[in-house]
Amino acid sequence: MLLLSHPRVGALLALTILLPVGAGAATLQEKIQDSRQKLEHIHENLGQMQAHLAAGQKTQAQLRREINAINQQVVVVQEKLAGIQQQQRLAKSQIADLRAKISALQAELAQQKSILAQQLRAAYTLGGVTPLAVWLQTERPGELGRMSVFYESLAKARSTLISKTQDTAQQILKTKREVQTHETRLAQLARQVGAQEHTLQQQRQHHAALESQLADRIAADKAKISELQANAHILDGLVSRLVVQFHHQEEIARAKAAAAEARRKAEAAAAARRAAAIAARRQAIEQRRLAQGAQAEQRARQVQRAVTAQMQPPTTVVRPPMLAPALPATPIVGHGPYPAPVNGPISARFGAPRVTGGLNWQGIVFQAVAGTPVRAIAPGMVLYAGPLRGYEQIVIVQIAHSLLAIYGHLGATDVHVGEQVSTGRQVGSVGNGGELGNDGLYFEMRNAGHPVNPLYYIHN
User: What tens digit of pLDDT does each residue of 208-242 get?
Assistant: First the structure.
């Protein structure tokens, strides 16, 4: 019995189908998953019912073959019974002939007995008269021969009649025995054939009852299959509607995310412009300060030369140039919306020339002790995690549609490709030495594949 055929389960399925979108599961995605599981359960039960129906139809076909075989046996038995009945009719005809023969023999026997009785009465009337007495008493000796012949003929006729009467009685007895034998044999055959026919009829009735029950079961299975197919069709429609609603909500979410991303990009661009303006002002101030320092140094050298010229004779002396006084180091600070991946000073600025020559730095370098945790600056999906020539271990996270965060010179990685990471999630740990020369983290940002100043995106 299938679970879905239970009335309570069917009512529950109907209630689930009629529920509004906001009820039941917490989210549309959970509703879709639940509906798909129910649909898979319905299809599984449907497959079981179809297999059960196929088995029933196979059993029904086997029963029909057995019934056909029994019917053929019944036909054979009926033909045999018809043959026996034909034999019975022939035997009855023969018995009737035999009985007619018996009647004729009995009539003949009766006639013979009557004639014999007459002869016996005639002999009794003559009493003890012998042929010799008749010869001695006759007055006509010429008739003596004829009388002797008559008595001899009469004796022979009587003897023949007695023998014939005995034969007739034996024939009657033999014929009666033959009739009885025929009737007994035909009765036995009729009983055997009748019993066989009765057995076959019972088997046929039993198989017919089984076929009727099987037909009822097959009809019930077909009805259940139709019900399951209808439930599956309804649930298919529900899943389709939920998927459409889910896609609609996804589109709305994507539109909101795109708008938020546009606002974030606009804010980042504005922040980048503000940072660029601040950097330009700082650079202008630095250039003015350097120019003022150079002018002051030049005036000091001129004063020194004048004093020296007044105190010493005018001789030519070559002195090494004086170096400019060391300037205080300017801290490198970012003003972006994201936190820094590690806490530490920045030792290499974006765009600055590398010590070893060649290309300029396309990212920034944080000074940090080896083993320091490196954390994601923003949520995103891991695109790559593993070794890369020149960068030791590296992790690349896609933050937005075209924005990538690259964490390089790692000693170890703690994420895998395809993983969704959140802000602050540890992606690896700081490595030691390498191209950097000292322990630290190389951090790079790329927008649409092009390196950009990470200080526009992080604050430290």
Answer: 898 898 889 899 988 888 887 887 778 778 777 77
Q: Alpha-carbon distance 374 to 408, whole Å?
A: 10
- Please state which CATH number belongs to domain 346-456: 2.70.70.10
Residue 369 pLDDT greater than 90, yes or no: yes
Please identify which residue in the block is written with the tokens 């039993």: 206
pTM of the shown model:
0.32
CB distance 452 to 445 below 8 Å: yes
The single residue listed with the structure tokens 């036995």 is: 188
pLDDT in tens, 77-123: 888 888 888 888 887 888 888 888 888 888 888 887 888 788 777 76
Long-range contact pairs involving 249-252 (C-beta distance under 8 Å, separation at least 24) = 249/28
CATH of range 33-233; options 1.10.3470, 1.10.1760, 1.10.287, 3.40.50 = 1.10.287
Pairing of strands 450-452, 392-398: unpaired
Q: Where in the chain is the domain with CATH 2.70.70.10?
A: 346-456
Matching residue, tokens 């139709």? 226
| Selection from 282, 284, 376 nearest residue 330 by Cα | 282
Q: Considering just the CA atoms, what is the radius of gyration of the chain in Å?
A: 66
Question: For residue 431, what is the DSSP state?
Answer: B
Which token pair is 33? 């998953």
The answer to whether residues 109 and 169 touch, using CB atoms and an 8 Å cutoff, is yes
* Distance (Å, whole) CA 460 – CA 347: 13
Amino acid 342 reads V
